[in-house]
Write a structure and sequence with these properties.
This protein is α+β, with helices and mostly antiparallel strands. It has two domains: 3-74, Glutaredoxin, CATH 3.40.30; 87-193, Glutathione S-transferase Yfyf (Class Pi), Chain A, domain 2 (Up-down Bundle), CATH 1.20.1050.10. It contains seven helices and four strands. It has a four-stranded mixed sheet with strand order 2-1-3-4, covered by helices on one side. A hairpin with a 2-residue loop joins β3 (55-58) and β4. It starts with a strand and ends in a 6-residue tail after the last helix. Bound molecules: glutathione. Residues 8, 11, 13, 37, 51-54, 65-66, 108 line the site of glutathione (GSH).
C-alpha cells in the first residue's frame, strides 16, 4: 500500500520520516508530494491544518507531527522496531528523540527568525536564546553519544537529522567544537545509505 507523504527536501522533520522509511525497507511505499509550505498558494492545510510538513496520509487518517509519522511507519514493518515497544529502552529512545526534536525546533525557529524576517525585524535576543538551547541540548547529547549503538533507532535518527540540519543551515554554530564523541558518531552515521539518500537539497 502506498502512503502519501507531504514532503519538502530541506525539512529535517520530513527527513526523519524518510530515514526511518529507508532503514525499515519502506521507502518504496511512500509517494512523495512536494510541498512548499511557505508559498501563498500552498494546499498543505488540506492534509495538515497546522500548515506544516511532514503529513502522512494513511488508511488510519492523516498524521501530522514527525514523531507520530515515525511511530506509524515503525508499526508497519516486519523488522526490529526502531522505537522499542516497552521498558527502559523505549524511554531512552524517546527521551533522546525529544531532546533532538527540541534542537530542531530551536534551529528551525532561528532560521525563520534570521532568514524569513526582514533584517530590521530580527530579534537578536531570541536568536541568542535559541542558540543557548541548542548548545545545552547538544552538550547533553554529547554525554549520551558514547552509548549509541545499533540499531539506528528513532533517537539516533533524530539526532542525526538535527546535526545534518545544523550543518546545512547554521554551520556558524560550529556544533562539533567541544563535542568530540558526538562528532565522531555523526561522521559514521552521516554515511549510512538512509542519510546520504536524504541529504537536504536547497
Ligand atoms: N513538530 C513538527 C514540526 C514540523 C515543522 O515545523 N515543519 C516545518 C518545515 S521544516 C514547516 O512545515 N513549517 C511551516 C510553518 O511553520 O508554517 C514535526 O515534528 O513535524
Amino acid at each position: 500500500m502506498t502512503l502519501k507523504l507531504r514532503f519538502a527536501p530541506t525539512s529535517p522533520y520530513v527527513r526523519k520520516a524518510m530515514v526511518l522509511a529507508h532503514e525499515t525497507g519502506q521507502i518504496e511505499d511512500l509517494e512523495l508530494v512536494p510541498t512548499d509550505v511557505w508559498s501563498a498558494g500552498t494546499d498543505i492545510q488540506a492534509d495538515n491544518p497546522l500548515g506544516k510538513v511532514p503529513a502522512l496520509v494513511t488508511p488510519d487518517g492523516t498524521l501530522c507531527d514527525s514523531p507520530l509519522v515515525c511511530e506509524y511507519l515503525d508499526s508497519r514493518h516486519g523488522g526490529r522496531r526502531l522505537i522499542p515497544e516497552s521498558g527502559p529502552a523505549r524511554w531512552r529512545v524517546l527521551r533522546i528523540a525529544a531532546l533532538a526534536d527540541g534542537v530542531l525546533d530551536a534551529a528551525v525557529g532561528t532560521v525563520i527568525e534570521t532568514l524569513r524576517r526582514p533584517p530590521e525585524k530580527v530579534w537578536q535576543g531570541n536568536v541568542e536564546r535559541q542558540a543557548g538551547k541548542i548548545a545545552a541540548a547538544l552538550d547533553a547529547l554529547e554525554a549520551e553519544a558514547a552509548a549509541f549503538e545499533e540499531p539506528f533507532d528513532l533517537g539516533q535518527i533524530t539526532v542525526a537529522c538535527a546535526l545534518g540540519y545544523l550543518d546545512f543551515r547554521l554551520a556558524e554554530l560550529d556544533w562539533r567544537s567541544g563535542r568530540p564523541t558526538l562528532a565522531a558518531w555523526y561522521e559514521t552515521a552521516a554515511k549510512r545509505p538512509s542519510m546520504t539518500a536524504t541529504e537536504p537539497r536547497a
